[in-house]
Design brief:
heterodimer, A: alpha/beta, Rossmann fold, 6-stranded parallel sheet, 6-stranded mixed sheet, 12 strands, B: about 325 residues, mainly alpha, ABC transporter involved in vitamin B12 uptake, BtuC, 14 helices, globular, membrane (chain A), BMP_lipoprotein (chain A), signal (chain A), Peripla_BP_I (chain A)
Amino acid sequence: MTLMKSFLGAAAGMALMAGAAAADPAIIYDLGGKFDKSFNEAAFHGADRWAKETGGKFKELEMQSEAQREQALRRLAESGANPIAMTGFAFGDVLNTVAPDYPKTKFVIVDAVVDQPNVRSVVFQEEQGSYLVGMLAAMASKTGTVGFVGGMDIPLIRKFGCGYVQGVKAAKPDAKVVQNFVGTTPSAWNDPVKASELTKAEISQGADVIYAAAGQSGLGVLQTAADEKVKSIGVDSNQNHLHPGSVLTSMVKRVDNAIYDAFKEGDAMKTGTDVMGLSNDGVAFAMDDNNKDLITPAMKATVDAVAEKIKSGEIKVHDYMTDNTCPIE
Amino acid sequence: MDLSTIYEILASALRMATPLLFACLAGLYSERAGVFDIGLEGKMLMAAMTSAAVAYLTGSAWIGLGAGIVASLIFAAIHGLASITFRGNQLISGVALNFVASGATILISQAMFGQGGRTPPLNGAARFHEMTLPFADALRPVPVLGPLYADVLSGNAILVYIALLCVPLSWWVLYRTRFGLRLRAVGENPESVDTAGVSVVRLRYGALMITGILCGFAGAYMSTALQAGFGREMTAGRGYIALAALIFAKWRPWYALWATLLFGLLQALALRPDVIQGALHLAIPGPALDAMPYILTVIVLAGFVGKAIPPRAGGQPYVKER
């Protein structure tokens, strides 16, 4: 019996070593899905870039329902994957309970802060990027009214809206901002039809530049803006190419860099909280061939100057999530 | 708030009401024939995906519409097979089909286009464009009715007019034809229809086919007219709101039109909090307006406003006496 026990123990040890030797990183995409053309897809691109450069392999999982979160996380941790990245604020609570059970595994979470010794939290200063696109919107607007369409009404999305309003008012103090949210449930991320109607309603209120921070619903906003011949602003990934000539710019969030960096550092990854803003290229407004005719050199120069001031701390952009209020509507 | 704002809200209401109207009439036929159909949502979703995919591949919105109708008909046939031929539970069959549609649409479009369950954006003839009705500009100066015709009714995709025409057509079919009489009878008392020598099974399948066709229109309208492509779960619960509208309409075609227009108006108002604020000097949260269709339906079901009596044989598979 004892022989059997030590035999089993040895086998288990071998299995563990095998697991440790093949410590592939892993990534879990949130409910929006891997190919959402914005947030999760950016994460995938980061992981993919790492794989192409190093020839390494990574595991991936796509969430199908809320209930799977903890199970998925534990399964990957037990399979020996290291580090494990996950996208989305909704993983915050789950990771907080799971991380202490796997002290040897490193975790990366994007969009939430989890205070555990083996977790790196990556958060973005979306308000800074939104501030810049807000300025561009105000300068591109002919009517003096611009719009914002948020997805689900949560503080994170209000943070986008709040930064945007501040930017608009900074460029044009008398400009009006019409703000709407698609809904209050997760289906708000997947309702382009309603997002389109919201866009039409905002256009009828005079808005001629509309910023969409609404996941897949945002595609409805960009589509309607293109149909109605007004300008729109994309989010998370560079969406300028979707409707060239209509998409003014995109507020890019470099989730891909966050994932790439974490994978590159591997299991020696340092933990703690990373705040990604303008100063470390975490957020930006997208410029490419598709929108070069829409943004004049003067507009770009103005916004670049403001970006420098935000980096140096001369201009402070209010973060909605610090106190759940926005100083200006 | 000026008049043009009112017309804009009414136009928005009409656009929001159209998929509901198609789906509501679809549900009307099957429920009148005694087959509950929770699967309106799934059929719309299948039709939306198929019509967007085929419209993209062929470059024709009409071929896309046809394909969407076929996809929806297949789902209607499966529902019929489960609930009419094999006498399964109609609610469970409908719910199951909704789940299948939710997964299958993403799976198929991902396999076809590799864009994360979306179809590529449509343009040109692959989409139903807004059309201007005749004399729209000439009639615009007429007070009230002129702008109502020119700004609200005109300037929609052709599917909107098809939906509106389906209302009198459904009334005529249900109340003025032999088929309609038998259809209603089979939902109330299938034994009597059977006694008269008419096939209950065939009538119910016929009703389900009409349901499938109308759901096909609803799905195609969303993905090829309102939007330029399919996105996952894009029906966002409209099939269930249509069921609520059906109860609110007490299973009658004209009432279905008013119910869906009312629900569309509520959705359109939820998009314009500034207008409500201006008119009532009271901030009503958007979600409250979004919930109104369900609240109204509960009120009607509770019997406060008239009585909603469903077809008597609804939900029961027909077993011929031996």
